[in-house]
Specification:
proline dipeptidase activity; single chain; alpha+beta; 2 domains; metallopeptidase activity; three-stranded antiparallel sheet; Creatine Amidinohydrolase, Chain A, domain 1
């Protein structure tokens, strides 16, 4: 099927899902806030400050990107949340907020840090756990201007976001199923001479046809370019018998997909096939190692053991795998925990990971097969089934 169709025909095939996953409910968001309160109390803090970005969306449903202006949710361990917000943004913010909260507003010449400090003073609190994704500049100013004791809140943020609910899994499943369909369409519309820019533009249009707002990201590489995990700059043109590597995703209500396919446009040579089969075996070994209670790093070790068996590596040596086996995924493309040596986080139900122990043959080619899995009581489950063969997507 690779190279058997056209751009126009493949776009015409695509349409949004007929039964889209439901949105996260307000009740689930309130449960998240309660869990955050418990974890904040457990770490010895009095309140949690969540800055704009993925975590603010997680707790409040507000899809607001971080900027130089502080927008943040202040959550006391006992009491209702407060949103620190620029005065002129209140209307836009309220239109997206999914939880009820009080608002403390600041004008452009005023200090939002002072509002955080005043709220803490009003509540008689002094220890503030701060979202680790907030900029150093903001956190430094907050500590300097308020005198609050600042604690780093990874234990709270990760303790909530690492473990996905059934509703989150459904949204992630939709995003990944959409992207897999886009991968199939992309492989079919390839032709000799097509450029990486044309393929990227097609993938953007295809994701839109599926109902997404376009690509969350996109990497398209041909031939030698596949040997670089995140690609080479510039425009490449597809030639007969090139390897093709496409890594892309989209968002569904903030939750992301991230799937990679590597295949041959034409006839794969013996070395391409050998490395591709080792990659598939390594991906399968990582999947099989997933078990509740096992450390994340054990999955990385399992993938690398396959490579060493075939004379690749060891460790990060090339030819072999130059990066970790996988990363957590959810509202962020890369988020804790990580399938890498040194990450001893125990696997638990609801954790979601990429599985992508890429093999690089320096300056020649690379093979990355990336699918995503989630942890259940009985082991790992795939969101998307792995690629079956080097000539089948």
């Amino acid at each position: 099927m690779i190279g058997s169709s056209t751009i126009e025909a493949e776009l015409a095939r695509l349409s949004p899902p007929v039964d889209p996953a439901p949105a996260i409910t307000i009740a689930e968001r309130l449960d998240r806030l309660d869990k955050a309160r418990r974890l904040t109390r457990d770490m010895g803090a009095d309140a949690l400050l969540v800055g704009a970005g993925a975590s603010l969306r997680y707790f409040a449903g507000l899809p607001w990107a971080a900027s130089e202006r502080l927008i943040a949710l202040l959550l006391p361990v006992d009491g209702e949340p407060v949103l620190i917000c620029p005065y002129f943004e209140r209307g836009s913010v309220e239109a997206d907020m999914q939880i009820a909260c009080d608002y403390r507003l600041w004008h452009e010449h005023e200090s939002p840090s002072a509002l955080v400090g005043q709220a803490m003073t009003d509540w008689g609190l002094s220890k503030l756990a701060v979202d680790p994704s907030m900029s150093f500049e903001m956190v430094h100013r907050l500590g300097r201007e308020t005198g609050l004791e600042i604690l780093e809140a990874s234990a709270v943020i990760n303790g909530c976001r690492m473990y996905k609910s059934a509703a989150e899994l459904a949204l992630m499943q939709q995003a990944k199923s959409m992207t897999l369909e886009v991968h199939r369409a992309t492989a079919r519309m390839l032709r000799e001479g097509i450029t990486t820019v044309e393929v990227t533009n097609f993938i953007e249009a295809a994701h839109r046809r599926m109902g997404a707002a376009g690509n969350s990201f996109c990497i398209v590489q041909f031939g030698r370019g596949t040997a670089f995990p995140h690609g080479l700059p510039g425009v490449q043109s597809l030639r007969e018998n090139d390897l093709v590597l496409v890594d892309t995703g989209c968002y569904v209500q903030g939750y992301t997909s991230d799937i990679t396919r590597t295949y041959s446009f034409g006839t794969a040579d013996d070395e391409h096939r050998r490395i591709w089969e080792i990659e598939k075996e390594s991906q399968a070994a990582a999947f099989a190692r997933v078990e509740v209670g096992v450390a994340c790093e054990a999955v990385d070790y399992a993938a690398r053991a396959v490579l060493e068996k075939h004379g690749l590596g060891p460790d990060y040596n090339l030819p072999g795998t130059p990066h970790r086996t996988g990363h957590g995924i959810g509202l962020s493309i890369h988020e804790p925990a990580y399938l890498v040596r040194g990450d001893k986080t125990p696997l638990a139900p609801g954790m979601c990971f990429s599985n992508e122990p890429m093999i690089v043959v320096p300056e020649r080619f690379g093979v990355r097969l990336e699918d995503h899995m989630y942890v259940t009581e009985s082991g790992a489950k795939w969101f998307t089934e792995p690629q079956p063969a080097i000539d089948r997507v």
